[in-house]
Amino acid sequence: MVLGMALLAGSDAFLKLASQLAPVGQVMMMLSLGGTALFLTVAWLRRVPLRRDEMLHPQVLLRNLFEIVGAVGMIVGLSKIPLSLMAAILQTAPLLVTLGAALFLREPVGWRRWAAIGVGLTGMLMVIRPFGTGFTGWELFPVAGVTGLAARDLVTRVLPARIPSLAVSTYGFAVIFPVGVALTLISDAPLTADPRIWLHMAGAVVVTTAGYLSVTAAMRLATVSSVAPFRYTRLVFTAGLGMAVFGERPDGWTWAGAALILAAGLYSFLRERRLARAVAPAP
């Protein structure tokens, strides 16, 4: 899990490097093409069918819509704000999933976890500081992005079991391409043929895939309760890459907000695990 988080942090860094050389639309198109081609190859090797009726299933279409919101928000955010801010905002995803599960899936959430959600969102406000002098407005894109990704995960929970996960991932990568085309057409920024962007995007595709494989291996080799807390190591890796590669120096408000988000997320997870143990049948 720690290796997976390090690789996914590397993916954020590669995408930020690419977005400094090319417009957001081009980055999205290249990411979609690379990821879709990779998943199609894996689906072909594993003989996983990609059916038209599954692709057009209402819940798959809704998931793809949230995938688009998440991709646009995250890639625009990566291109405009420091990586350390992105790292802190990303850590609110589990809290937003808990919030969405309570509001839309009617899952029971006690007052302690509601308090943890409130603390985490307060930490996010400390990070982006919407009423501060340093607020640019671009900070809202990753907030929208992480909200879209949380909604995507909620929809994934209720997808029909007959639709393979590999097929769902393939559809999710594929729908990003037309959005990238649309953003390219409405943007004044020209496409670039700089060789460096190909290296950055190839790196992003490779480390993203390796990161997902590492996370999958961790979830299959150990219990969820033992490895899930290590997801928060991504904050350390992403912030570290921001400082080492991009020369970022997060201020005290950012560190304090990130600490609140981290503490709220870990508490919420530990509370969920404790409740699950309490209702589990005796061996």
What characteristics describe this protein?
mainly alpha; 283 residues
Number of domain units: 1
Total helical elements: 14
The outline comes out as globular
Q: Share of helix among residues?
A: over 70%
What's the gist of this structure?
By secondary structure, the protein is mainly alpha-helical. Helix content is 77%, strand content 0%.
Question: Could you walk me through the main structural features you see in this protein, from its secondary elements to its overall organization?
Answer:
By secondary structure, the protein is an all-alpha fold. The protein has one domain. Helix content is 77%, strand content 0%. Helix 2 crosses helix 11 and helix 5 runs parallel beside helix 14. It starts with a helix and ends with a helix. The model has no long low-confidence stretch (mean pLDDT 87).
